[in-house]
């Protein structure tokens, strides 16, 4: 079985390096590549690969949103993340969005080859550091539920609203918005807006 692969990474040097690696593997064939998520989607829709090997942080469409759209448009393609970022705000949203694997760019090439082959047949592959983070998330105690108002505030924050804008939209004071955010941070176990949004997405609290 030949695994058909698309590479999505905004660094040409990385794409060149990966191409050089995979050319040595008779059963792994690169059928397309792209430097951002928009082009990656187009290439994947055209080529219908078995695996899409992608970075997370790229200009324009990237990260969990790219993975979600890819799952919608090319559901047969397995998404394998290859990145330098292993923080919870990167790992958890990517896995929640549908990535079947998550490797770091310092992984040995043989590990990358094995991961691509495993992803192609539907097996989950996580680097040790990433696996530990996912396991910790699973083992974490059930979070307290957000109130309806807290959920609304979080939704506004996720869409980019400032405290002032959220207050105006809900006809409440900025102080009240800050209080709601403090409660949200405590319930989600985070310390800032970005982490709150990422965690909420990973737990399915936001669409």
TrEMBL record:
Question: Residues in domain Response regulatory?
Answer: 4-120
Sections of the chain in a coiled coil: none
Pfam family name, one: Response_reg
Q: This protein's superkingdom?
A: Bacteria
Q: Which residues carry this modification: 4-aspartylphosphate?
A: 55
Task: Describe the location of the HTH luxR-type domain by residue ranges.
Answer: 139-204
Q: Which CDD domains match?
A: LuxR_C_like (cd06170), REC_NarL-like (cd17535)
Q: Which GO biological process categories is it annotated with?
A: phosphorelay signal transduction system; regulation of DNA-templated transcription
InterPro entries attached to this UniProt entry: CheY-like_superfamily, NreC/VraR/RcsB-like_REC, Sig_transdc_resp-reg_C-effctor, Sig_transdc_resp-reg_receiver, Tscrpt_reg_LuxR_C, WalR-like
Q: Name one GO molecular function term.
A: DNA binding
Ordered alphabetically, the record's keywords are: DNA-binding, Phosphoprotein, Transcription, Transcription regulation
Name by which UniProt lists this protein: DNA-binding response regulator, NarL/FixJ family, contains REC and HTH domains
What species is given as this protein's source? Nonomuraea solani
Q: What is the lineage of its organism?
A: Bacteria, Bacillati, Actinomycetota, Actinomycetes, Streptosporangiales
